Amino acid sequence: MATSPIDNTHDTPTPSIDPPLEPDDRTETIPAVSGRLGSAVNKISPVFAFGFLLAMGILIFEIFMRHVFNSPTLWAHETTTFLSAVGFVFGGLYCASKDKHIRVVILYDIAGPKLRKALDVGISIVCMIASGFFAWAAWLMVKRATMTPAGDIHFETTGSAFNAPYPGILKVFLLLTLIVLMVQFFWQAINYMRSAPITGSEQNE
């Protein structure tokens, strides 16, 4: 008597396959409107992120030296303040390159594609002009912080026992960052003008 083969397919569990992960902020790329400048800013950003880790390490070292060996350093506090300040200054440029600066979106969200494009261009131009004014103010500070009344180059120092030239260096860095920020907003305005109007669904993506 012939028998049919045993079908064991129902006894074998089917492995479940997880859906692909959606990209998050950690894998987000630089928007096209930021261009090559935005990509360059993004590439050097780990250097400034490492500065925060270095500042934390210096603080831990200072706590260890102060409370274990009773031998506090002269440079730890000023150095960590300088590294943190540099990181925060660069953070503004980094947010602009990612097109993630703070906006009031009450009108932006209800605007149509053409008006939204006009707002993008207008916001970029306003931010560019504001960055230019801040850069001019920073240049006035840099002249006082890097030059003596006689015209000699001398960086402003902290005035402490360590007396590091951190204030002068930080003001120069602030000036350079504001200049790059102004250029970044300029290119964003140009690229927004060239781009097609963005619909609400594309904006949410």
From TrEMBL:
<keyword id="KW-0813">Transport</keyword>
<comment type="subunit">
    <text>The complex comprises the extracytoplasmic solute receptor protein and the two transmembrane proteins.</text>
</comment>
<keyword id="KW-1133">Transmembrane helix</keyword>
<keyword id="KW-0812">Transmembrane</keyword>
<dbReference type="InterPro" id="IPR055348">
    <property type="entry name" value="DctQ"/>
</dbReference>
<dbReference type="InterPro" id="IPR007387">
    <property type="entry name" value="TRAP_DctQ"/>
</dbReference>
<feature type="transmembrane region" description="Helical">
    <location>
        <begin position="75"/>
        <end position="97"/>
    </location>
</feature>
<feature type="domain" description="Tripartite ATP-independent periplasmic transporters DctQ component">
    <location>
        <begin position="56"/>
        <end position="159"/>
    </location>
</feature>
<dbReference type="Pfam" id="PF04290">
    <property type="entry name" value="DctQ"/>
</dbReference>
<keyword id="KW-0472">Membrane</keyword>
<keyword id="KW-1003">Cell membrane</keyword>
<comment type="function">
    <text>Part of the tripartite ATP-independent periplasmic (TRAP) transport system.</text>
</comment>
<feature type="transmembrane region" description="Helical">
    <location>
        <begin position="118"/>
        <end position="139"/>
    </location>
</feature>
<dbReference type="GO" id="GO:0005886">
    <property type="term" value="C:plasma membrane"/>
</dbReference>
<comment type="similarity">
    <text>Belongs to the TRAP transporter small permease family.</text>
</comment>
<dbReference type="GO" id="GO:0022857">
    <property type="term" value="F:transmembrane transporter activity"/>
</dbReference>
<feature type="transmembrane region" description="Helical">
    <location>
        <begin position="168"/>
        <end position="187"/>
    </location>
</feature>
<feature type="region of interest" description="Disordered">
    <location>
        <begin position="1"/>
        <end position="25"/>
    </location>
</feature>
<keyword id="KW-0997">Cell inner membrane</keyword>
<feature type="compositionally biased region" description="Polar residues">
    <location>
        <begin position="1"/>
        <end position="15"/>
    </location>
</feature>
<protein>
    <recommendedName>
        <fullName>TRAP transporter small permease protein</fullName>
    </recommendedName>
</protein>
<feature type="transmembrane region" description="Helical">
    <location>
        <begin position="47"/>
        <end position="69"/>
    </location>
</feature>
